Amino acid sequence: MGTDTGVSNVLLLTVDSLRADALGAYATDRHTPVIDSLAERGTVFERAFATGNWTPFSFPSLLASRPVFVDDGRIGVESSPTLATQLSAAGVSTGGFNAANGFLTSHWGYDEGFDEFEPFVAGSGSTLYSRYLARHPTVEAWLQLATAPLRRVGSWLRGRTDERPFLDTSRMFDVEHAASSFVEETREPFFLWVHYMDTHTPYVPAPRYIREVSDGLLGTHRMLHAHTRTGLGWEVTDRTLSDLRTLYRAAVRQVDASVGRLLETLSEAGVADDTAIVLAGDHGEEFQEHGHLAHYPKLYDELIHVPLIVSVPDATASGRRVARQVGLDAIPPTVTDLLDVDPASRWTGESLVPAVRGETAPADEPVVSVTVRGETVTTQPIPRSLEDGDLLVSARDRDWTYVRNVDAATEDPQRGTELYFRPSDPRQQTDRSEDPATAAVRARERMEPVVREHAARLRDEATTERETVDEELGARLDALGYR
């Protein structure tokens, strides 16, 4: 295996809520030295787009190269040929470790094909307290945050720095340990997937990373204050927004440092020169670009434009940047190509290995993304089917973004469409859907059929059966903010 690429193993790193402009490889004023070094010796896809605004809409493409809803109406991958299943059938050892995202568990089929799989979603313990934490996992993060001043004083009195409680809130150490053990104990070839949650709200980075990304010290009391204001629905002042951005950048740097430790593990195990690294965000994060925080059901770039970096141990591929648009459904066929394994015939994406080698650019096809919106933008039921609200579909080429609220536009063709020209309007504030200019008209004519076809496919092929999510899992998803 890997005879054509020189690769025996692949490490896939996915980061929840990671915007493209959170990394130095995409925005020069960011501080992510480890990931930037991967970009410098690998290939950066400048226009990589998620296929949805949050994890359940993005990951069917990311780990199964299939659009959400298209196979059985579910948000998981139980009816899809997954990347891990395809690799396992070819004799590749597979390990998957997810830092407690309730949407990426066996309940949704994400364990399929993995020899070792651990989602680190807490189960019910024997005590009332442990059962409560299992149902409200972010409470532990809030407790760590609230007691941080006392812990820091205690650490100072003991003459040492204690940052582990901060890192433990995201299950980072658990994931690192599991991934490192897999590398150390598994014979080549292998595929290892690691999913980070540090950049998902609430952002609780260790103090050292806050200091690294800010001009001064953002005290723990201000961290707590910022999250409390947003959690209670109070007005988000400029200071609060600035604090949240700083915390987010610090959380990104915290992930960056963890990636560095995993790369050291590869080196210590003697497999670094045989291992390709693929890093991607599953979706982005909004900081009021369109009026909200986190990742409500919208399809603008702050939520859809994500980083995608492929680093292959081949010096000839260093520092390459690809401008052509790509979707995250390209990841599964790219990984199988790197490992000299045939892709599944039902996958929708195409391998990016030719682009990584500098041979051919990705196909110039629009990237489609979807979301489902309830009665209001802030109404977020657990999205189990298309019945949960209006279906929104977007299409992106290199320069234009076209968004259509399929259900609203069906009732009134003049409603529910948006068009943006990203080069001059990167924040997508000026809707050009009714612009008579030739370029805008051609963009609409080019992408409208793509959006209509995708919406029709979902409506025709996806079932609308609603399923019951067990109480514990539902509570965990609610605690992540998916109500």
Number of structurally distinct domains: 2
User: How are the strands of the biggest sheet laid out side by side?
Assistant: 5-4-6-1-7-11-2-12
Main sheet properties: 8 strands, mixed
Which homologous superfamily in CATH is the superfamily of the largest domain?
Alkaline Phosphatase, subunit A
CATH architecture of the largest domain: 3-Layer(aba) Sandwich
N-to-C CA distance? 45 Å
Q: Overall 3D geometry?
A: globular
Query: What oligomeric state do these chains adopt?
Result: single chain
| Low-confidence blocks of residues | 129-140, 462-469, 479-483
Question: Would you state the CATH class of the largest domain?
Answer: Alpha Beta
Arithmetic mean pLDDT: 82
Count of separate DSSP helical elements: 17
Polypeptide structure, described:
- This protein is an alpha/beta fold.
- The longest helix is centred in the middle third of the chain and has 31 residues, at 238-268.
- The protein folds into two domains: 9-366, 3-Layer(aba) Sandwich (Alkaline Phosphatase, subunit A); 386-461, no CATH class.
- α9 (207-213) crosses α11 and α10 packs across α11 (238-268).
- A hairpin with a 5-residue loop joins β8 (286-287) and β9 (293-294).
- Residues 129-140, 462-469 and 479-483 have low confidence and may be disordered.
- The chain has helices at residues 33-40, 55-64, 83-89, 128-135, 137-146, 148-157, 164-168, 172-185, 207-213, 220-231, 238-268, 301-304, 331-338, 353-356, 406-411, 438-461, 471-479; strands at 9-15, 43-45, 48-49, 93-98, 116-118, 190-196, 275-281, 286-287, 293-294, 305-306, 308-311, 320-322, 326-327, 367-373, 390-396, 400-405, 417-421.
- It has an eight-stranded mixed beta sheet, sandwiched between helices. A four-stranded antiparallel beta sheet has the order 14-15-16-17. It has a three-stranded mixed beta sheet with strand order 10-3-13.
- It is 37% helix and 16% strand.
- The chain contains 17 helices and 17 strands.
